[in-house]
Specification:
The structure is a single chain. This protein is α+β, with helices and mostly antiparallel strands. It folds into 2 domains: 87 residues; 68 residues. The longest helix is centred in the middle third of the chain and has 16 residues. The protein contains 2 helices and 12 strands. A hairpin with a 6-residue loop joins β11 and β12.
Length: 169
């Protein structure tokens, strides 16, 4: 059974500073754009976007520009439109993100179904790109306050995962 709740990376519209001035520059401030992209791609956890690289973006060019972001260790293509007449740009990526809170909820469901009561489950890191082999480390606390470690390994882009108990010791 796969996760039913997935977080898709959605488009973001924002204004790039300095582009609306009467003496409008011929290029976009790429450094400012690269700093703004993480909050647009992963608003709840922009810290998982560790690198963003964009080429120089001229205002008079045609079509979108391709950038690259590293989200939770995975290279992700990012599309950036050139500024419109209101100096807004749209940033988007077609990847699907899986949130740790959703994985934890499903781990808890599985454990309760198989073993009975579970007090608490949490997983880390906060977000992964939905790709086979990506892993979350999870901890489940049983009613006796004992911690049990699990690894949830994504099996594909549909956010389904395999759950394995990590042996103690």
């Amino acid at each position: 059974m796969g996760l039913t709740v997935r977080l898709a990376v959605l488009a973001l519209v924002f204004v790039v500073s300095g582009c609306g001035a009467p003496d409008r520059p011929g290029t976009v401030d790429v450094e400012a754009l690269e700093r703004a992209i993480p909050a647009g791609l992963v608003p709840d956890h922009p810290e998982v976007v560790t690198v963003v690289v964009c080429p120089e973006i001229t205002l008079d060019g045609l079509g979108p520009v391709s950038c690259t972001a590293i989200i939770a260790g995975v290279d992700v293509p990012v599309k950036v439109t050139r500024p419109d007449r209101l100096d807004r740009m749209v940033v988007s990526s077609g990847v699907t993100l899986v949130r740790a809170v959703d994985v934890a909820a499903e781990v808890e469901e599985r454990l309760v179904a198989d073993l009975g009561d579970v007090d608490e489950v949490w997983c880390d890191p906060p977000v992964r790109v939905a790709r086979a082999g990506q892993q979350f480390t999870c901890v489940a606390i049983d009613p006796a306050s004992r911690a049990h470690r699990f690894v949830a390994t994504l099996s594909g882009t549909d956010a389904a995962f395999r759950l394995e108990l990590v042996p103690k010791g």
